[in-house]
Request: fold
Amino acid sequence: MTRAALRFVLAAALAGTTTFLGVCGLALGAYGVVFPPTTGGQLQRDVEGVWTGTDAPHRYRPVPLHDMAASLPRAVVAAENSRFFEHHGIDWSMVQEALAEDHKGDPLRGASTITQQLVKNLFLTTHSTLVRKALEVPLTYAAELLSSKRRILELYLNVVEWGPGVHGAAEAAASHYGQSAASLTPAQSAGLAACLSNPRARRPQTMGWYPRIILRRMSPLGPLPLSATGALHTPAARAPVNVNALHQPFPHSARAR
Reply:
């Protein structure tokens, strides 16, 4: 490849990346007040379904945070990103811990925050590549700049995948428990949160001990420091999780798979 051709390719790649990030930034601004009509994650599943001949309709019905049980965001924060309210998008201390463990030969664990997972679901794909990780960084900081923590959590709970064709808390509650997101118990919320690291294979009713660990993590969190306006506040009191729920079986639904 000649130098001129190489310069052209690099310029085109830079222009394409800049345009993509700009469009995503505009979308993030709009998503501060409206829910996305679809997401990159859903489009990825559409393409995969056509490619494999297993295309299935998406169940996606966004609902505001006040229409979810308070235990659901608590369970997700406890399971996915307990320092969600302490970082500005990327938890670099968790990244360092994960790299140190990998250097020692331990299995590499994820260090993505809820904000990173949100932009991945909105604009990228689930494929773990260096390009995706590189794009995640500016998008994550843009999301934190343009949205409140409350809105980031609200969007994440509505777009995240909770099973094949199941996106968001409302459809997850209906699919796995046959009820609304507002009526979820702490045990059920923990069961849903336990599925997030592998939602296409995991089901709340078969997660065994992990939901109980999430329930224990929820108690120290207390009420999440969120106001209706999205501003952070210091909660006046903690609401402990019912410890008896640790020993209650998850209710089965005819729609559970």
About this structure: The chain is about 50% helix and 0% strand. The two ends are 53 Å apart (CA to CA). Strands lie at 59-60, 166-167. The first helix runs from residue 3 to 30.
